[in-house]
Structure formats: C-alpha cells, structure tokens
Description:
- Strands 6-5-7-8-9-10-11-17-16-13-12 form an eleven-stranded mixed beta sheet, with helices on both faces. A four-stranded antiparallel beta sheet has the order 3-4-14-15.
- The protein is built from eleven helices and 22 strands.
- The chain folds into three domains: 15-86, no CATH class; 87-254 and 269-294, 3-Layer(aba) Sandwich (Rossmann fold); 298-390, 2-Layer Sandwich (GMP Synthetase, Chain A, domain 3), CATH 3.30.300.
- A hairpin with a 4-residue loop joins β16 (275-283) and β17.
- Mean pLDDT is 86; it is low at 43-52 and 395-399.
- The N and C termini lie far apart (63 Å).
- It is an alpha+beta fold and 399 residues long.
- The longest helix has 15 residues, at 90-104.
- It has helices at 15-24, 51-54, 90-104, 121-133, 146-153, 162-168, 172-179, 193-202, 308-315, 350-358, 385-390; strands spanning 41-42, 45-46, 70-75, 85-89, 111-113, 136-138, 157-160, 183-186, 206-212, 217-223, 232-234, 238-242, 247-252, 258-261, 264-266, 275-283, 288-294, 299-301, 304-306, 321-331, 335-344, 370-372.
Amino acid sequence: MNKAIVLPLNPKFPKQQTEIILKRCKARFYITDKIPDVKFETSEGLISKDFLSQNAEQTEPGLNLNPQIPATIILTSGSSGTPKYTVHTLENHFANAQAVSHYFKVSEQDNWLLALPVFHVAGLAVILRAFLTGAALSIPVQGESLDDALKIHKPTHISLVPTQLQRLLKSDYTVKVLQKCKAIFLGGSAIPKPLIQNSLNIGFNLFTSYGMTELCSTIAIKKVKDGRTGNADILPIHQIKIADDDEILIKGKSLFQGYFTDGKLENVSDPAGWFHTKDLGRINDANQLTVWGRKDNMFISGGENIYPEEIEKHLLEIEGIRQAVVVPVKDKEFGFRPVAFIDYRYLLQTLNLKADLQKTIPSFKIPIAFYPWPQDIFDGIKLNRKKFIDRLENVKDTN
Length: 399
C-alpha cells in the first residue's frame, strides 16, 4: 500500500517560502538532488535529508498501490493570491490522463516532450499520459533549452503555454519540427489571436484547452481551425453544468479530494458533489464549453460589472500584443477603473490602443492607463493576478 503523499515544489521558490510550505503540509521528508544548506523543521521533527541518494537501494518488494487514497498535493497557480494545496488520488490523475490520451489517440509509437514543469499539474499529466499509453516520454536534460530538446527528440505531441510557442516561432528549425507534431496542446493563459492565426497559417496542429489543478489538468479541448478558441469538447469523464449566475460546476472521476488546510483535508464540493469553479461560461447544444471569465476577478466601475478577461481578449486580438493583464485601480469617482499591463512587440502607444479598443468594447471598459509588462513577476507558465495588482500599490487615485 502506498504510504506517502508527494508534493512537488518549484526549485526556484525562496528558502523561506519552501520552509513555510513544508511546515504547512507537515512534510516528513524533503527530497532534493543535493543536500540542502538549510534544515527544514516540521511539526513531526527534523528529518530533512538527501533522501534519493541515501535510500536509492532501499526498495519495497511487491509494492501495492491503492489508487483511491491521497497520493499527491499540488499547489494551485495562486492566480488570485495564496496558492491552495490540492489533494488528488492516483485514480484522479489516471482518469484525466487516460481521457486526454484517448482524445489524441496516443499510442506506443508516439513521443510526448515534457516542456512544462512537473510542479504544475499540467507537467505531471504529461508523464502519466506517456506511462499509461506506453508512449515515449522525452525529458530535456538540465540546461537543455526547449529549442534544443525539440531538435533532439522530435516529438509527436507537446504541451506548451503561449509564451513558449511565441519563442519557438523565432527559429525556422523548431517551426519545421512543430509542423510535424500531431498535437501542439496550448493552455495556461489567454492566447493572443495573432499567435493562433500565425500557427494555423504555418500549418500547426493546434489544440487549446481549459483546465484546473483541482481537476488534474484538462477539462475541455478544442481543435483550432478558424482562430476561435471557444466551444471546446468536454472530456467524457467530466459532468458539467452552468449555475444561474453562469458559474461552471464540475464533478467526475478526476475531481480532487479537497484542499489540505490547517493539517486537515477540507472537502469543498457542495452536498450534491459539485465543485464550484468560480469560472464563468456556457455550454452549447453540442455539449461544448466556452469559458469567458472568473467570478473573483470581476470588479465594479461606476456601477458597471467589469470582467478583466473580456478586455484582455480584445487586447490580445490587436497585432503586436503578446500578453495582456487587466486589473482594477482605485478611483474616487468610479470606485475602480481598469488598467492594463501589456507585453507589446512595438513601442507602447496608449492612444492607438484606446482607439483600437473603442471599435469593440464600450468606453467604460477601456483601460485608463497602460503599463509595460513586468517580467520579474511572471514565471511564464501562469500569471499571478494579485502580483500585478500589488505592483499598482503606489498608484494614486485617478482623480
């Protein structure tokens, strides 16, 4: 019987943050490729060690895994603040990995390149898809760039976030490798429309996804054919319904067991077993899902509801914009007004951006200010919206 629960950590976390996480999750071992220079104390005592090297030959014969008991704790992206500790069983992970593999018809002849970190659920999911299907799993060696990994391994499948694909398009050779992929699977953040159109023009087999850590990664997938990313096919392992306020509710085999909070497992599903995602969307008559925002990102400006994702979608349709995040800033008259952080290929020209947005959205939704993209608060995988808000702390009321 499996007796351990694994919590993969970002090795770039500061020492203090790692210590806090280990204490909160009551970790008994801290496994690393080298002996840490700091001792990690947990509520169960001081047991930090180079576990891998010192216990490499200590294996348990006839290991019998129970797929229905907690096996992993994965930190959420913390896009709205402090990350949550999601608890999954192997059954949860396997159900999602099998569903995605079946969608893509992954077989032993395929090769999935691991381009996402395994401390994110999307990276861990790649490993499990290969494990369950017998497909090859290509793992870049330490220090090997994604460009080099593509050249060496020539995968049939690859999961990426938009920023990674943007960078890969700069090399003619990596473009040729990607053109031969059966699936380029994009997720993690909003995707610029020019990036989608450029990928389709090149001939990429492009798929977009909607997923959550709480659901072991993927919930719905869309084969992109016309530049649109809505109306995604819901994986059959999920049951989804839309609440009266447009919130997406989900249950199914890959739904997590709950959050690990204050040393206990907290089940957050409602009495009927539905998990309230806080995402907003709709389902069409073909049982396809479109997601258009988050309940907890909405703010009110002059009595009007503002959904940042709507504004970001229109910004990402403007040629030259790679990434965009819209957040609220306090305003004496309106309560809050939207401002935007822009990763722009050319010089940031506020007047032109406002003019472009006026063609598609009402004036009260147009950001009152545009700021350059802060590379130091974004890890390239999934944005933490709260950090962008914190960057505006010194911005005075707009009146």
